[in-house]
Design a protein that fits this description.
Blueprint lengths: L5 E3 L7 H10 L3 E3 L13 E6 L2 E6 L23 H13 L5 H8 L10 H15 L20 E2 L22 H4 L7 H8 L3 H4 L1
Parallel strand pairs: 1-2, 1-5
Antiparallel strand pairs: 3-4
Length: 203
């Protein structure tokens, strides 16, 4: 385990606050993959800015058996065409943003290829976003589950998808902010599509 570092969860299109923490602790970061999968978290959902305010995009997962499923073993469900829904939502919400067209060809394949495991889907998306943000990070993962840590900062429960955050965030231009005002701590794609290469300087 990495001393003086942090353990982070693996999220789907993580919120801006996640990248702020990641930037603070890099390169001494390890990602949790051995935990029992917690429901209703950013592990399989992301919030973007729609014309009606914050919109949650949820990746459906296959319901496990009575035994708890480890995060790395959680499988994505394709019972309905959620990929098409997510991609259409991203296009509808960010087509007018300054940099959506700059990035869309790189994101599009994630909504065409069917990944079996949520963790792999999230990891490859994270690697793509890190490359856009010019953040160099060698991804390391937990080998066993630890209930608590003594020598590193445990951020596995630091980000809650269902409650407001206390993260203080500088405002930046958002596509619908004239209608709804600034919405903080949305998915990193909101920052990326609106700020482009300047996103890393924002962090």
């Amino acid at each position: 385990m990495i001393a003086n570092g942090a353990v982070l969860p693996m999220f789907y299109l993580p919120p801006v606050e996640f990248f702020s923490k990641l930037n603070t602790f890099k390169p001494n970061i390890v990602f949790e993959r051995e935990e029992h999968f917690p429901k209703q978290t950013y592990r399989n959902r992301a919030n973007i800015y729609s014309p009606d305010g914050a919109l949650s995009l949820v990746v459906p997962v296959i319901k496990g058996s009575k035994n708890h499923t480890k995060t790395r073993d959680v499988k994505i469900s394709y019972d309905f065409r959620w990929q098409r829904l997510h991609w259409m939502s991203l296009q509808a919400c960010y087509r007018r943003s300054a940099y959506f067209e700059y990035y869309e060809d790189k994101f599009a394949p994630f909504y065409e290829k069917q990944y079996e495991y949520l963790f792999d889907f999230n990891r490859e998306l994270l690697e793509l976003i890190l490359s856009f943000m010019k953040i160099k990070l060698d991804l390391k993962f937990t080998e066993t589950y630890e209930k608590s840590y003594q020598d590193i900062t445990d951020l596995r429960e630091a980000f809650n998808a269902k409650t407001p955050t206390y993260y203080e965030q500088k405002q930046y231009f958002q596509v619908f902010d004239e209608r709804m005002g600034f919405i903080q701590n949305l998915s990193i794609v909101d920052l990326l599509f609106n700020q482009g290469p300047q996103a890393v300087n924002y962090l």
